[in-house]
Design a protein that fits this description.
globular; about 210 residues
Length: about 210
């Protein structure tokens, strides 16, 4: 009886983190105020989706949100958040909707966004998978070697996935597919910013598919 009591009093072991997901949002000059809110509201709505909530909790996942634009224009707007309960996801959804825009009137430098992201995974080194989830609506118009950044991600064992926000044709999709994502990554296309909410939900569900089963 005493042994049983001791076992009952012992804390349960923490579940392992399956996925560390860094959501990086394009806030360069091509993104106007309405388009910015389509991205932040779309992310907040995705985090309120029951399937995503279940997967995040089951996987004891970790999420952070980064905004990026030009050279030296990257900022962590929501720090790493460990998901233990549905309440954790609800709080994260509120924070995603209320996040302030970090930059305006700035260039587009996805290579710098990736390099910044790679330097910010130390707090979640215990997670089995580490994923950079980058969205953007334009190709680079300033310095930066995106191929080198992608190679560094692959050396570090970090996956890069993307949402390509198209305004015409498949130019942005092809750029992200051919030059940004890692060999184990994928691209989802949003036909315009108005399609971003659907795309971010689909992308997060796909990234967490192993947890969902």
């Amino acid at each position: 009886m005493l042994c049983r009591l001791i076992l009952c009093l012992m804390p349960l072991p923490a579940l392992a983190c399956d996925t560390a997901l860094m959501l990086t949002i394009d806030v360069s000059n091509s993104v106007d105020v309405a388009e910015y809110h389509l991205q932040t509201d779309g992310l907040a709505d995705a985090l309120a989706d029951p399937d995503i909530i279940d997967a995040l909790v089951q996987g004891q996942s970790a999420i952070t949100v980064v905004q990026w634009s030009g050279i030296d224009r990257q900022a962590t707007v929501i720090p790493w958040t460990r998901i233990r309960t549905a309440r954790d996801v609800a709080n994260l959804s509120v924070a995603a909707r209320l996040q302030d825009r970090a930059f305006v009137l700035s260039d587009t430098a996805p290579a710098q966004a990736v390099l910044f992201s790679l330097r910010n995974f130390s707090a979640v080194a215990d997670c089995k998978r580490r994923v950079i989830d980058i969205s953007g609506d334009g190709t680079p118009n300033t310095d930066g070697d995106i191929a080198a950044a992608r190679r560094q991600a692959e050396r570090d064992g970090i996956t890069i996935n993307a949402i390509a926000i198209e305004s015409m044709g498949l130019t942005i999709t092809n750029f992200y597919r051919n030059q940004v994502i890692t060999r184990d990554g994928f691209v989802i296309t949003a036909r315009r910013h108005s399609d971003y909410p659907r795309a971010i939900r689909a992308k997060i569900l796909r990234e967490l598919a192993r947890v969902i089963g």
